Amino acid sequence: MANFFEDNDDLLFLFDHLDLRAIAQEHEMGFGAARDATTAHAPLDAEDAVDNYRRILSITGDVAANSIAPRAAEIDAEGNTLEDDGTVTLHPGVRKNLQVLGQADLMGFTLPYRYGGLNCPNVIYSMAIEIVSRADTSLMNLFGLQGIGETINAFADDAIKDEFLPRFARGEVTGAMALTEPDAGSDLQAVGLRAWQDDDGQWRLTGVKRFITNGCGDVVLTLARSEPDIKDGRGLSLLLAEPGPRLKVRHLEKKLGIHGSPTCEIVYDDTPAKLIGERQMGLVRYVMSLMNGARLGIACQSLGVAEAAFRVARRYAHTRMQFGVAIEKLPAVADMVTGMKVAIEATRALVYETSRVCDLENSTLRILETCPPDDADEVKRRKQRARVLKRRNGLLTPMSKYFASEMCVRVANDALQVLGGSGYMKDYSVERHLRDARITTIYEGTSQMQVVAAVRGVCGGAFEKLVTELEEREYLDGALNGLKQGLGEGKDRILEAIAFVKSKGPDYMDLHGRRLVDSAATVIIGHLLLQQATGNERKRLVAKRFIECNLATLYRDLNLACTGDVTPLESFEMLAGPVPGLA
Amino acid sequence: MAYHSIVCVKQVPDTARITGEAMRADGTLNRAALPAIFNPEDLHALEAALALRDAHGGIVTALTMGPLGATEVLRQCLYRGADRAILLNDRRAAGSDTLATSYILSQAARKIGSYDFVFCGRQAIDGDTAQVGPQLAEKLGIAQVTYFERLVELTDRTVRMRRNVGNGWEVIETTVPLLVTVLDTANEPRPASARRLMTYKRARTEAEVAQQVGADLKGADEDAREAELADRLEPLRMNKLVIDQWGLDDVDADLQWCGIAGSPTKVHRVQSIVLTKDGYVEIPPTAEGVKKLIQELIVDHTFG
Q1: Which residue in A51, A100, A105 is closest to B194 by CB distance?
Q2: CATH fold of B3-203+241-257, please?
Q3: What's the pTM value of the predicted model, to 2 decimals?
Q4: Would you tell me which of A404, A489, B215, B259 could form a disulfide with A299, CB atoms 3.0–4.6 Å apart?
Q5: Cβ contacts (< 8 Å) between A131 and chain B: which residues?
Q6: Chain A residue nearest residue B187, CA to CA
């Protein structure tokens, strides 16, 4: 039977390449759950945990290939339905998908065992998101919203956890995070939806949220202004609301892609709500944490849709005959097809490294919180480690989201190009993949916002520290050492450019942010691919191809970044021309 | 009312992945060259039983006859929701044809005792006979509904089922106990549950544990091996992770009806057929073309 995990050589390679035993060792917190009768299915040791991870991904791959993928085209064509009473009826195929995911226990992927979850680390959940997204990119928006449960687990009180988390794990409920408003998109500090307490002390929500993925879900985590006098992000709290007569969907968006994912405008009419955690921490702590997970989720979704599009193109290029040969023999097509594959594998290296670093940060913090070591020096060492990892994530998460989403749009676009006229028609799935891919550079923070976040990490030392660590790895192989040397020169050029850009001020940094982040990604990914290349001839070629092609771009981009030119800012009116429709 | 269902499942070679080594020179099947899988239609039989249990209550017992390796399909039944699993494993059952197999299965069903439904896949992809289910019903002396598609109604002991009759369907009313053979269009089998998998991946038949002990304690004397076996079985028993394993004596089988002795089927000849394509005919999309095509299909007995 088809299986989207087991048929993916690169995912299988990474599963073995990433040190999952080390992650399991820290993540499973001493393997105590197995000794509790109610969670006796928990793993006994690291090897057992890794065996579970592999089997869980096999189930995910089975469900994705045999159950989810066959329904994707119909769901895309028909979409969901808004009813007159302000509820949304999900497409029958979407409902069936959710039922199957629930039956497989995959809706509590990262939740602790005691709530019925699988307690998987981030890196495994990331792979599952990629697998599901390859089958139906729009389903990721429901499957990948498990961060809602995770946020409740991390920040809500026990009563709320006990009420909701087992229902999430059983797949009975799905969640939404309601952040965006008509006047608060990228700028969440401007959120205005009111949270207030009535005479009985009951929290209530009043206002409108827009573009809410799965806003018709059962658990709507809502960012709202609980402190009317504080105008910025510190006046915002996070509250849990449930649909009913006082929380209705007023509009279901008609979108370019991801038709299976209901995007809702929702109206809060003094809706009763429960406060999550502490007041005023909504944006600054909880949503920031939720968003980091969500961004990584989009990076994995991007990988999934790119993989789906690539496979159609690879097969087509092999079977389509023109001029008496399969078109893969034509140089221009060969360049596109291999370029797509290298781009996907390069992105995987970055995204799963990011997931791994997230897991390391989470478990370091959790160990400090729940069972701190007796030795004071050890505590200090771990605290310092946590700080480094946090900064590293501050760089890698937005970089991954940016890099992966831009990659998948490019790959889906090229895949369509390989199919030519056939690709433009609805007869093949590539046009759907391209439409589905297009959202990834926009939601959960646009590429431009990710670059703003990532460029701070590139220029602020996190990049240099990470690369210095990566450079410690020695290669016996001369060819790999040569490539490593090239990356070293690339890094030196980046550091020069950083010094120059910094001297020109923050606007200049943002103007050239994309070039700096792209260059930094080239060096980081280059090192990760070199690590994968040891003893693997094919991966050596992937590393070589990626590094040689992207270093050329790096120098071109950084030369531009070092000109000091600010034409788009200084001469905006002249270059952009008149505003259409305005005299 | 709660119902007890027995589901008969089979581990089969994956005939969808035939390679060059699949057949030996003498025309017999080289099982080692093909991956062993859960017979696809048996997954639908299992789903029918599980869905019935979920709707009406009761338990589902998975039963397979085969070598020790067939325990794997029983574990998969447990992952998907079966309550109990039994391996029928006996060297003397080797070589059984459909008649002997159905006899042995009927003895096992009798030993299981009270049951309301026996579900089987319509047929297995290795033999494609579709005989074992109907023969089993005959041997048990119970009614059978073959080519099951859908449960229409179930009240107390009366059941209505829709079955596919090739060019349409019919609804049959009958009473339990009842044997049902299930088509792959009947339902969508549920996936393995990850949490059940984490539990039951540790489930073993006693013989599997003994085999592992033999491998781990090579050269140790028999007493040491037996002690080790008992040690390893104890925690499995405590956690209800021992899969039942029965031999022919356990089910009171009469040996003259089992294995080669009980199998009247004689293979006359096995042919290794290599399919080749010699050219093709283009048929114009006209009334004349279609007429010609139909004529040709009648001549080569594809029709009629």
Answers
A1: A105
A2: Rossmann fold (3.40.50)
A3: 0.92
A4: A404
A5: none
A6: A67
